[in-house]
Amino acid sequence: MRRLGIMIGLMVCGWASGQYFEPPPMDPDPIGAVSEASRDTVGKSRVAAPPAQDETYDPAVIVPTAQTQVAVLGYHNFSNSKPVTEMLMRTTEFREQMETIRKLKLRVISMQEFCDWRQGKLRLPARCVLITLDDGWKSVYTDAFPVLKEYGYPFTLFLYTKYLSGHGDSMTPEMIREMQAHGATVGSHSTSHYYPSRWKHAEAQGKDFFRAFMDVEMGDSQKKLSELFGAINTYCYPGGFVTPAIVESLPGYGYVAAFTVIPGKVHADEDMMRIHRYMVFGTDSSIFQRAVNFGKGDGSALKISKKSSGSLPPFPVFPAAGSKVSEDLEQISAQLGTIENLDFSSVQMRVSGFGRVPAQLDPAARVVQWKLPMRIYMPSLTVQLSWKTVDGKRMNTQWSFDIIPAKQTENP
């Protein structure tokens, strides 16, 4: 009866729309979509210069577990002809990124190796990469798979089961099984890939309703994928949405690891149910560069101390220091009009969990601004701004603010 109730609830709310689901974008209006005038030409490379190669690094050296770092990469869709978006990358750019991994001598590991390392069963080189691809787009098979097979890289497919039809741009089970024979692992991306707002709405209906909802989205997906492709024990949060109730429920469905959309290197003490992952957007190659930079200047998982020598901002910032803002926060900005002798070209912004971010500078308005590429599910953020004066003096300041859940709407 509980299962019947949740299914009826889904249909009444208009959440079930047939057997064939197109993958939703990251947001109804993806942040950072490029204009027609700024789109690259077909097949043109957009890959920025890779980090400098460390000629002294030896990938054959196996290090103690605590000394390994893993960069988990997340991809979606590929094409050399369709317009580039956050979720769709040029196939040629993907190939160049895989070549960069080879040139940097980074070890690409399988999901099994990753889990064994994290559980203390396996030792690895100091620098490793785990490749994941979300949703089940057909282009993963037609475009990305040939590249991955050429380089001999293992990879993980996070699939949601209502997109396993072979219709339109979706893959068929046969395509996935072929990839499994060449290094692919399958994980769950839920049953329906609902937006975070619908997960919040379901949770707001009470524990019983939410448990039934999770039974469908997390439990049924694990069962169906296991029947099709063998045992499934990893999960990828749709839209990156995760709550304590979801984390507590995952082991009961057979999951041993779950992946977020929060960037940062994975270390040996990583929470296995909140694993960091770099979502590599088609519109921003700098994300990949930060992911594969294992040098001292990485900053990808930057942890800024609140006891830093930098003072609180002497100018207006948004969000304000000590404030509380919604997880739907769209931008972080600072008005630097009161800073004397400022060399505006030297301004840099770093955000905890993201490292140095591609903030936009407006010298005329004396504003620095960063548009967030995703919803934020961390309890707080710390922002650090640094700049130079015209005489070369380095200055910095930082502030922190808390993130609270977005208010629940009646019609999510």
Task: Give short descriptive properties of this protein.
412 residues; alpha/beta; TIM Barrel; Immunoglobulin-like; 2 domains; six-stranded parallel β-sheet; five-stranded mixed β-sheet; globular; disordered N terminus
Would you kindly provide a written description of the structure presented here, covering whatever features stand out?
This protein has 412 residues and is an alpha/beta fold. The protein folds into 2 domains: 42-291, TIM Barrel (Alpha-Beta Barrel), CATH 3.20.20.370; 317-404, Immunoglobulin-like (Sandwich). 24% of the residues lie in helices and 23% in strands. It has 9 helices and 19 strands. The chain has helices at residues 2-12, 91-103, 111-118, 138-151, 173-180, 196-204, 207-229, 244-249, 286-291, and strands at 69-75, 77-79, 88-90, 107-108, 127-135, 155-159, 184-188, 234-236, 257-259, 278-279, 317-318, 324-326, 331-335, 342-351, 355-356, 360-362, 367-371, 380-389, 394-404. The strands form 5 sheets. Strands 1, 4, 5, 6, 7 and 10 form a 6-stranded parallel sheet that branches. Strands 12-19-18-14-15 form a 5-stranded mixed sheet, with no helix packed on it. Strands 11-13-17-16 form a 4-stranded antiparallel sheet, with no helix packed on it. Helix 1 (2-12) packs across helix 7 (207-229), helix 2 runs parallel beside helix 4 (138-151) and helix 6 packs across helix 7. The protein is globular. Mean pLDDT is 82; it is low at 1-45, 296-310 and 408-412.
